[in-house]
Amino acid sequence: MNEHDRLVDRAAREARTVLFVGGLDAGKSTLARATAAFALRLGRTVAYLDADVAQKTVGPPATVGLKHIREPDDLTLERLATADALGFVGSTSPQGHILPLVGALARLRERGRTEGADLIVVDTSAMVSGIWGQLVKYYKVDMLEPDLVVGLQRGEELEPVLGVIQRFFGVELVTLPVHPAVVPTSVDQRATQRERAMAAYFDGDLQRFRVKPTVFMPTLPPLFDLHELDRLLVGLSDGGGGFTGLGYLEFVPEDHGLRLISPVAEPPKALRLGSVRLEDSFRVKRVDLRNLFGTE
Ligand SMILES: Nc1ncnc2c1ncn2[C@@H]1O[C@H](COP(=O)(O)OP(=O)(O)O)[C@@H](O)[C@H]1O
Ligand SMILES: [Mg+2]
Description:
Elements (H helix, E strand, L loop, with lengths): L2 H12 L2 E6 L5 H14 L4 E5 L12 E7 L7 H4 L4 E4 L9 H17 L4 E5 L6 H15 L3 E6 L5 H11 L2 E6 L9 H15 L5 E5 L4 E2 L14 E6 L5 E10 L4 E6 L7 E9 L5 E3 L2 H5 L3
Parallel strand pairs: 1-5, 1-6, 2-5, 6-7, 9-13
Antiparallel strand pairs: 2-3, 3-4, 8-12, 10-11, 10-13, 11-12, 13-14
Helix pairs in contact: 1-2, 4-5, 5-6
The structure holds adenosine-5'-diphosphate (ADP) and magnesium ion.
């Protein structure tokens, strides 16, 4: 057994919440799936919590997703892509979005537990360096209270962030080198993967709902030009604090109104504005709502 297999064996047997941390293409998702697969074989009740908002395993980009793993086939990439529960972050980077990110994760973790999961495997974003990397990981650990954190690193890139986790939380840490068989993807390939994942989410039967300008969070300022919201990503509220999925807005000049375009059949109770616009190819472009609203 190599050290990666030993880690999977141990996490699958002993952990309650295991968090995988690492940079780009570190093997986080692969190891998270392997852990879930082995835990399932051991007869444990497993849920996969995907906290990576960019390179998704569960749910579309700009969300966090929970998936219960009830049989081995639930771990195929195709099945994992459909979440059992979604949280809306509204951005494909955690930068500037820690609150919606950890808030949604806390909710999904709770849901996973109440629905019976005794092991929660947490896959995280590749943001591991700089101030944002440290803040994001600090608050994820603070909120999710893992009993095991696995760091997958090249060289010593994770030392600052793992040091923070160790000093503040005293959680058990296992550090492994990135598996030599990992083939890194380029920046372009990753961008293409994100576009494809978003495009795939909006592929198929789409609903078009007329939306009133009063359904948004945050609330639109008075005399706001609705045209500014064209192609903005939104989260579809279920009215109970959760989200049923994603949509985007379309400005209709004929009636100077907005339509919601979404694959979710059920009309949403309210809409949370995201911080990205979907360009034609489903490439995302950052939007700062404060600039859009002309407020703080
Ligand atoms: N142990 C491994 N052996 C071979 N290939 C691997 C291994 N772990 C990861 N890979 C491959 O490397 C790439 C990145 O792995 P992934 O788990 O998606 O990383 P991350 O989630 O950290 O971005 C994927 O193509 C994956 O199939
Ligand atoms: Mg991944």
